[in-house]
Structure formats: structure tokens, C-alpha cells
Amino acid sequence: MGALEGAAIYQPMCRMRTTPRERVIDSRSSLRSDRRGWALFLGIGALVFLVDQVSKYVILRNLSVGEMWNPVPFFKRFVTLTPVTNTGAAFGLFQEHGTLFAIVAILVVAAIVIFYRYLPPSEVWLRISLGLQLGGALGNLLDRVRLGSVVDFIDFKIWPVFNLADTAIVSGVAILAFFLLFSQPEDEQRSEGHS
Q1: Which of 10, 18, 34, 180 has its CA 20 to 30 A from that of 94?
Q2: Which of 52, 143, 155, 166 is catalytic?
């Protein structure tokens, strides 16, 4: 019998030898870990949502749509705060499809929450990734529902105007892509550890 086969038989046998008290303690720590995971996920989502909405409020309160501002004149040719309304997707793509994108945003939020429920407790970076995406999607969704369009204001001149929600979504997707491309499934990690 190989080392891997022996380990595969040994692990379930160890689980069978636990007492009811040990199983209760294990389930409590799992529940605590799950609560911390949900707190991280929802906390990041709420923080992104709050920062996004406050930033849009401050921008609209102090600048008119289309008005450019940068406190350092030298940098004005590279980046300005320029509020614009966006009825399309991220970065102003596909204009005039606001209702469709509101429906898509609702579906994305639902998919993020459903996908989150299947994450292993040890995947902290995936929780952060999904929290960023959730907060960004909710921030832009609220704009669509409340204003009929999304408020964008960060203008780098060589790139379409965007907002902090877009930044959070793209950052979350980048973390998710990195994780999916470069992480090893737990089964592979365990088998390498036993080699």
C-alpha cells in the first residue's frame, strides 16, 4: 500500500475516533470561522459601498457635471476629477442600456453571494475579492436605481472616466483571476505534502 493510500484510509479513521464533545468543539470553531469569513466579506463590501457613495456625493456636491478639477495645475493634463454620468457599463462602455445593466448588476450581486457560500473557510483572498466586487456592484447599482445612471469622476485622460466602485470591481476580479490561475486545489497541495 502506497503512502497516499495509507493517508487516505487513516484520515477518515481519525474522524471516526472523535468523541461527541470533540465534534461539537470542531463545529463551533467552524461556525466561528464561518462568521469571521462572512464578517470579512460583508465588511469589505460595506466599506467599498460606503466609500464609493460618499466620494460620489462629495464630487457632485462640489463640482458640476463636466467640470474638471485638480488642485495641482501641473497634473491637470494627466488626471482630473471630472464628474460625468454613465448609462452604460464600466468605463462608459455600451451607453444607453441602463436598465439592462441594472438587471445584470442584480444578477451579479446574487451570483457573488451564492458563490461565496461555497468557499472553503481558508480562502481569505477569495473573500476579499468577492467583497470588493460586491461593494462595487452595489455602489453602481444604487446609482442606476437612484439617478438613472452611474456617476464617474476619475479622469486619467487616456482612459475612460471611472469611479471607486469600478476600481473595486476590477481589483476584485484581478485578485480572483490571480487566485484561479496560480493557486493549487487543496487536493494537489495535500498530495505534494505527502510525497
Answers
A1: 180
A2: 166
Active-site residue, from 52, 152, 155, 187: 152
> What letters, b where the CB count within 10 A reaches 16 and e where it falls short, cover 126-136?
bbbbbbbbbbb
Residue ranges making up the domain that contains 84: 39-194
187 part of the active site: no
Q: How many domains does the chain have?
A: 1
**Is pLDDT of 3 > 70?**
no
Model pTM?
Answer: 0.76
User: Is 13 among the domain residues?
Assistant: no
- The DSSP element (H or E) to which 12 belongs, if any, is helix 3-16
| The amino acid at 12 | P
Residue 26 in this model has a pLDDT that exceeds 50: no
In a domain, 188, yes or no: yes
Q: Does the annotation mark 166 as catalytic? A: yes
Pair type for strands 80-86 and 150-155: antiparallel
- The residue written with cell numbers 464561518 in the block is 34
Any idea which residue has 464617474 for its cell? 152
